[in-house]
Amino acid sequence: MPRPIALDLFCGSGAVSLGLQKAGFRVVGAVDFDIGACRTYRENHPDVRLIEKDIRAVKPDEFSDLIPGQLDLLVVCAPCQPFSSQNRHKSNNDSRRDLVGQSKKFITRFEPSLVFLENVPGLASTTIFGGFRKWLKKAGYSVAEPKRVDAADLGVPQRRTRMILVAAKGVPLSVATRLVQRRRRTVQGAIQGLPVPGIGKPQPGEDPLHYARKHTDLNIRRLQYIPHDGGGRESLPLELQLDCHKRAERASSFSDTYGRMRWNDVAPTLTTGCTDITRGRYAHPEQNRAITLREAARLQSFPDNYIFHGNAGQVATQIGNAVPPAMMRTIARSLLAAIRA
Ligand SMILES: C[S@@+](CC[C@H](N)C(=O)[O-])C[C@H]1O[C@@H](n2cnc3c(N)ncnc32)[C@H](O)[C@@H]1O
Question: If you placed Cys at 338, which of 50, 84, 136, 175 could pair as Cys (CB 3.0 to 4.6 Å)?
Fold first, then answer.
């Protein structure tokens, strides 16, 4: 049976493509404009035509020769920062807010059987999103209600609440949206057993992603006070607390800073700052350091043979931005079932 064909818009480092391929799709084309992410994408998906351009300048016909018949699936994972609750500087004038709408030219051109969109839940309440759903209906699609999902229920050792939207034309929407929950995975299952990493830079002959960020002496002292396995900064003596944390009204917004992950739980949502203990609960459950890029990649369900290109900041961005491949694979199985129904 030929594999259904997919296009991956805003493909980043290729996590969506990986999940789709594992579920049985053939990804033929992808679009992104980030240089580092595109290098990573090409390395891991050499057979996919990646157009490395601003999507606003991409013409759908650049993929036409790859899609002689029906396009089965169009994936739209536009940047979530303009709608994210974690973004304290978001603005209605952010030009990235209209990027979801760039998918319309691909939908008009190829009329995919399924359109799948993933973003932060904040997108669902915007007029942009309401308008997009209306547009899909006018274009003849059955459009599901936006659904909140947690990656932790879909095979990923991480709490990551996302909104997904599925639209279908000519295939059963009810099958495409029927998600099967997967067994919970934990931080322990994902990262325990990795060797104690070196500090500051990749170590010769060792996993290039498994080295710990160098912390200041002050932050090491702080970490020494944080109880193992889930402790937080409330255990810090007053003299080691940051001034902003001492002010009660600000305290709650930074409650995860310096916090440790818990072995027998899922990880917190990984962001592009996921190897920085000042940006979230990103300290190792018992070692006095932030998690490494390897640990972050595993907590996002990337296999160890997935190769990342770029400096530490670029790789952290690629990992933090990714739709966890295991989550995408679980969702893609339902999408595939609808196409084959
Ligand atoms: C949420 S990330 C996508 C993650 C990706 N689907 C994955 O699973 O790894 C959003 C992506 O949109 C890309 N992007 C943002 N603006 C863009 C634009 N105008 N044209 C093309 N890509 C863009 C970013 O470079 C980023 O990789």
Answer: 175
